[in-house]
Amino acid sequence: MNAFPDAAAKIYDDNIVRLVPGYALALDLMGSILTAQLSGPCRILVPGCGTGSEILVIAKCLPEARFVAVEPSVGMLDLARQRVGTAGLSERVEFVCGYLDDVGEQGAFDAATVSLVLHFLPDDGTKQAFLAGVAQRLAPNAPLLLLDAPNIAFDESALRQWLLIQHGPGVPPPDAVIKRMQTLWHRAAPERIAELLARAGFAEQATFFQTLGYVGTSALRRLPSVD
Ligand SMILES: C[S@@+](CC[C@H](N)C(=O)[O-])C[C@H]1O[C@@H](n2cnc3c(N)ncnc32)[C@H](O)[C@@H]1O
């Protein structure tokens, strides 16, 4: 369900930086925020790790952190494994080919990152169940860093122009990218995302990043989740 096709992995890393304005900055900020909140040995849950980009950034910031990387696409996970190995981080990352339900440990993680995953999940209970699943696996007060594409108003012509400048092999033309955002993605309103987070048990929500169509939200696991 929603797993990227294996073939998508080959072009993913080249394309994502040309599709999401500020993608690298968003990941750098995740590293900075977690550095301020965690220290020493800790465990970080990364559902939808894709090709492992957030792990590579955060691992540098937190040298004693260990990761559980969850990813349903074999192609994406293989590339994550390869990149993590090249960076000399294999000992610190456990890979799970599947979904959150395949990670049994409840309350075992000191933080979680969810980067560019939630907008692929429909708001028919699927987003809520996913966030509740993340919350259940976090210890009390553990931070969640969410990078999402919510349904916010933004300067569409600025995004179109940015995409035009970035355009290159394998990247669809700007209008196709924007149409995909508008028609294929499940972009919930920011208020709805806030409600889903609160219902899942996350408090102290704050924005740490915002660009053309993308928002980074930090929150803390506080309340028992409803699901
Ligand atoms: C746009 S990529 C993001 C990858 C990475 N987190 C990043 O920021 O570059 C979305 C990833 O989420 C995975 N995915 C889709 N649905 C998922 C789910 N329900 N649970 C976990 N991962 C999922 C896809 O296979 C894909 O690799």
From TrEMBL:
InterPro entries: Methyltransf_25, SAM-dependent_MTases_sf. It holds the Pfam family Methyltransf_25. It comes from the Bacteria. Gene3D superfamilies: Vaccinia Virus protein VP39 (3.40.50.150). GO terms for molecular function: methyltransferase activity. Residues 44-140 form the Methyltransferase domain. Keywords: Methyltransferase, Transferase. GO terms for biological process: methylation. PANTHER family: TRANS-ACONITATE 2-METHYLTRANSFERASE-RELATED. This is SAM-dependent methyltransferase. It comes from Hyphomicrobium sulfonivorans. The lineage of its organism: Bacteria, Pseudomonadati, Pseudomonadota, Alphaproteobacteria, Hyphomicrobiales.
